[in-house]
Design a protein that fits this description.
By secondary structure, the protein is an alpha/beta fold. The protein has a single domain (about 1-30, about 90-220), classed as P-loop containing nucleotide triphosphate hydrolases (Rossmann fold), CATH 3.40.50.300. The protein contains ten helices and seven strands. The chain has helices at about 15-25, 30-40, 45-55, 65-75, 80-105, 135-140, 150-160, 165-180, 185-190, 200-225; strands at about 1-10, 25-30, 110-115, 120-125, 125, 140-145, 190-195. The strands form two sheets. It has a five-stranded parallel beta sheet, sandwiched between helices. It has a two-stranded antiparallel sheet with strand order 4-5. It is globular and about 55 Å long.
Length: about 230
């Protein structure tokens, strides 16, 4: 099996790339989806977050108030407190998922889509020192999706249309982008870079070509392991 990390800045199109990888046959775990599941009432992240931040992050229906949590994260500068709770739980869940994929499909291309593959300082067991790079032990290959900053901003604003004013969405984009590494810094560490500055069809074509390479490498690894 080949373990692949798929990342990119907000608005880069990494989720669109992940969706097409899945269409082609890859096994895909999206960190946002895993995190949302762990934040449901009764789940580990929900319990830890509500204990840490108190009733202000619980909505009237008893679920986690994600908008309130976002305000705490970005307006109060407490992102790392939330990451320290959520990241180890998500990484542990994805490690368990990868093990099940390996048993079921030894030659699979198992892709984890996450915005913060390089940035996170956490493993399934907690934080690591500044000199370590935990992503190196999680993945065999890392793919970065890039796009010009203003293109990413426009995509994010369009995605938020109807839920917040354009000016608010632009400011929200800036806050989120500031918490991530630049495309250049990510690309310098990546094994593969997908430049998503054109049409969706162009991105899908690039994913198609890359998936053929990843699938071949995974098959070779599976043969060597037999």
């Amino acid at each position: 099996m080949l373990r692949v990390g798929l990342t990119g800045g907000v608005g880069s199109g990494k989720s669109a790339a992940a969706a097409h990888f899945r269409t082609l046959g890859a096994q895909v775990s999206q960190s946002d989806e895993v995190g949302r599941a762990l934040m449901k009432p009764g789940q580990p992240a929900f319990q830890a977050i509500t204990q840490h931040f108190g009733p202000m992050v619980i909505a009237a229906d008893g679920a986690l108030d994600r908008a309130a949590l976002a305000r705490i994260a970005f307006e109060q500068g407490r992102v790392e407190e939330i990451n320290a709770i959520v990241h180890p739980l998500v990484i542990a869940a994805q490690s368990a998922w990868a093990e099940t994929v390996l048993v079921r499909e030894p030659a699979a291309v198992a892709i984890v889509e996450s915005a913060l593959i390089f940035e996170t300082r956490f493993t399934a067991h907690g934080p690591v020192t500044d000199v370590e790079a935990p992503w190196r032990t999680r993945f065999d290959r890392v793919v970065v999706v890039t796009a010009p900053l203003e293109t990413r901003r426009e995509r994010y604003i369009a995605r938020q249309a109807g839920s917040m004013p354009c000016e608010t969405a632009s400011a929200d984009f800036d806050r989120r982008a500031a918490a991530q590494w630049t495309d250049e810094r990510k690309a310098a560490l990546a094994d593969f870079v997908l430049v998503n500055d054109g049409s969706l069809q162009h991105l899908q074509d690039e994913v198609f070509r890359l998936y053929a390479l990843l699938r071949l490498e995974s098959a070779d690894r599976a043969s060597e392991a037999m």
